[in-house]
Amino acid sequence: MSVVPAPDVDASTVTTWIDFMHTNGVRHVLCLLTKEELGFYSTPLLDRYATKFGAANVTHVDVARSWQLSTLLQSLTRAVALHEKIVVHCSTGQSRTANVLALWLHRHNALGIAEAVNEVTEYALEARTTRKPRVADVVQMLMGEQPSASLPPPPTSARPLSSRVLSGRLATGAPDTVDICFIQMGGAIDRRTVVSQRFSEHTRNEIGDSCVREHLAASAFAVGHEFVSVCKREGADVTLDDRKKLLTALFQTSAPRIVVTHSLETLLETAQFVALKLPTLGKVVVFTGARLPAIENSSDAAFHVGFAAGACGQLRPGVYVAAHGRVIPATACLRNERSGLFEELKHST
């Protein structure tokens, strides 16, 4: 015979909570409790919330099961659009709620994830409460997969500096100083030939530092920007882990526009991977590359970098391929195996 433990939270306590929230103007509830945690209540908690606030204003996302990013964001967006208060409810508020708050700052205020995490932590200290958001956990929420331990550390440009500067930006609505981020993945664009003469002269190819920095310096590029190197690989050598690290870099930059330089050989595969994994990223991501290394006089690298950077400012949020004078949504793009050119899929009527 099994013994069923008594509920930890009785009905009168829940009534006190709900009355307090309603009296203080709360009109929406986002509940992050698991199925097991809901069992701690003597009466069905979600039903009690629905009775007081209305079923349409109560959202439940069980973080222990299939992740529902769009459902969570819709709940927060609806409350903000109506200028109404929302309570995010988990067990202690230190981790799950804290990560959701950081996630919201990242998405709604265009902050880098590390900046958003820092902002939540500092605000909690001022409010004399405890919040423990983590960059890796927020990234995992956005991705819906990938254990936190496998994530690389934030790039230097995304690490928080002064959170009080962030608070000032949130209050004034001033734009971020980083308007565009250039991310290196490798490919012919950054390929260079290395000559060795230790025993006998021989040459080998390797992927060097990103050529973008030199191109921007030469053109007196005046837009606020940053550089991130995810990997330096030839197209066939790009791995799933490299692509996941790219997702992390896309999350962590505060820039609303991003240019990714990549081998043309597998560029489309990576671009479509990003489009599939990040359908609601809310940023413009443009992939480009070059047929010839930037160090060669006849290279198409400078054109493609400039073309991609210019295209960023004219596009709606999404993932695109910019090459050969064309800009094509990644989900509607294919590569002509014969010519090597990227083409837009033709839909039959």
From TrEMBL:
PROSITE patterns (alphabetical): ASN_GLN_ASE_3, TYR_PHOSPHATASE_1, TYR_PHOSPHATASE_2
SUPFAM superfamilies: (Phosphotyrosine protein) phosphatases II, Glutaminase/Asparaginase
A Pfam family reported for this protein in Swiss-Prot or TrEMBL: Asparaginase
Domain Tyrosine specific protein phosphatases: 67-142
MF terms (GO), sorted A to Z: asparaginase activity
Protein's name in the database: Asparaginase
